[in-house]
Structure formats: C-alpha cells, structure tokens
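Hi all, long-time lurker, first post. I run a small reading group and we've been trying to get comfortable going from sequence to structure in the token notation. Rather than ask abstract questions, I figured I'd post a concrete chain and ask someone more experienced to write out its structure so we can walk through it together at our next meeting. Sequence below, copied exactly:
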Amino acid sequence: MKRTCGLLIVLAAALPAVAAAQGYTPTRPIELVVHTGPGGGNDVLARALAAMFEKEKLLPVRVQVNNKTGGGGLTAMAYVAEKKGDTHTIALFSGNWITNPLVRKEAKVTIKDLTPVVRLVTEPALIAVKADSSFKTLRDFVEAAKKQPGQLKQSGGSITSRDNVVRQLIQASSGAQWAYISYPGGGERIAALLGGHVQMMVIEPQEAGEHIRAGNMRVLAQIADKRLAGFPGVPTLKEAGFDVPVVPQIRGVVAPPRVPAEVVKYWEEAFAKLVKTASWRKYLEDNQFEDGFARSAELARFFDQFAERMRGILKDAGVKVVR
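-- Answer (accepted) --
Happy to help. Here is the structure in token form:
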C-alpha cells in the first residue's frame, strides 16, 4: 500500500511535465505580424488565413493581424525579433524578408534570426497597366521607355522587392529605362496606377483579381514559368520576348527567436490541417497561388537556397549585395 501511494505521488508530481511535453495550446489571441499595409499581398493573405482558421475551427483562439510597415519588411522583422520566446506571436514573411538584408547594411535582423515554421505558397505575378492604357503589350511599354528614358513610371515596393528586380532585369536586357516609385503598401501602389500617376506595376494575382474583373486593369505579361490557368491568353515574360530569370515569390510563417519546439510543432500541425481544407484549396485556385507547403526543417534549408539564388539574380540585375 505504501509503495502504491508513493508511486501515485511520483506520477502526480510528473503530470505537469508530461502535459508540457505533450504540447502547446494558445490561451490568448494570436498576433499575426505582416510588413505590408492594408491591401498588400501579405496583409490580404494574413486576413484570409485568420478567417479560414476561424471558419474551420482549427484554433481555440482568434488571430489578429498587426501591420508593421516600413523598411520593406525590416521593421516587421525587427519587431518579431524583439519578442524572443513569445508563444503567441507569429509573422507572415515573403521573399523580401530574405532579400532585403542581402542589400542593406543597416538591417539588424535577417530571416535566419527568426524561427522557421512553415512555407505556404509560391506565387507568380502579373505585369499590369490601367485598362485604358495605350500599351497593349509589354513590348509596347518597353519601346516607349526607350524613346522616353526615365519618363514612364512603375509603382512598387522596396528596391529588393520582386517589382524592382524584374524592372532591373528587363531594363538590363532591353536597354530601356523607366522610373521606379516606391510605396509602403499594395493599396497605395494600386491607387497610383489607377489614378494615372504611374503607367505600370508588377502585381500578385490575388491583389489584381478584383481590379481585373472590374475592368480597371489590363495584364501585359506573366512572371511565371508557364501560363496561369486564370490568364491563358497572357504571355509569360519569355513568350513576350524577354528571356530573363523568373523572380520567385514565396510566403510563409516564422515565429520569434527562441520559441519552444512544441510551439513550432503546434503551428506545423495547425497549418498542415488548414492546407487540406476545401477553404484553402479554393483560396489557392481563386488567387492563382501554387501550393508550396513545407514544414520547419525543410523551410530552414529553403531559406539558404533562396538567399543564394537571389544573390545571383540581384547581381545580374545590377544590385549591390552586402551579405
């Protein structure tokens, strides 16, 4: 009897440790950090994720989006890095979280300082003009830029964003020159195009969709290896006569530094369930995304591979790399 009681006491004392080892469950709203303002690619995706998690009842708490704009992602990255060990904060990254520190000495944080969680999507992009633009093809725009160096304008994000890298590559291959106007968020970039303040922009299908359907934008080319199902009549860059690298875009989730392994595991499983839902499959189809789901270990390796690839592309585009 004494032996049995002693065993029960030992087991009871061990229960909290066993429970902790079994995993983590959030107990308050999750802060989902994005670097874009309202209407930007990561903001749109983040709000869609929050809605899908709620609809599919995959989390016991709500997800709240927190826009930390500035520095082409550097502000958001620094904010997340300061929240060491925070188990209720995650962030949605995109390719410029990897590329910006490659060209900016002032960057105090790189993607490697954060905790990889999952990669979600890879996505193509579109080159679009206002619907009433005189440019019917990308070649029309480029030829006009040759005749008027620096006079035509493109709206975009940071200098290391896909927007500008694509511009640099096309300029280098064609000899054309046009101006690049940087805006903090996708909403401002789109407004600049629709307001006639710029003549062209690179835009993700999810951002462009409603404007294309409403007849406000026209697509000249696709930044993709093959034509998207939603734009079968629009040529890829190569088909349009510009044999330049297809600059990749990826989006996924990271957490602050020093987050316990059980927290990473929790989010891996939560997102693994989400990407199997009908809601997610419809979202991919509606926005012309490609499924790029990868778990933490694979994502960590991908960060290194992506950074190396982008170093080469940035150098080809004439951008100075400092890391």
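A couple of things your group might point at:
The CA atoms of residues 146 and 308 lie 32 Å apart.
The domain at 125-223 is CATH 3.40.190.10 (D-Maltodextrin-Binding Protein; domain 2).
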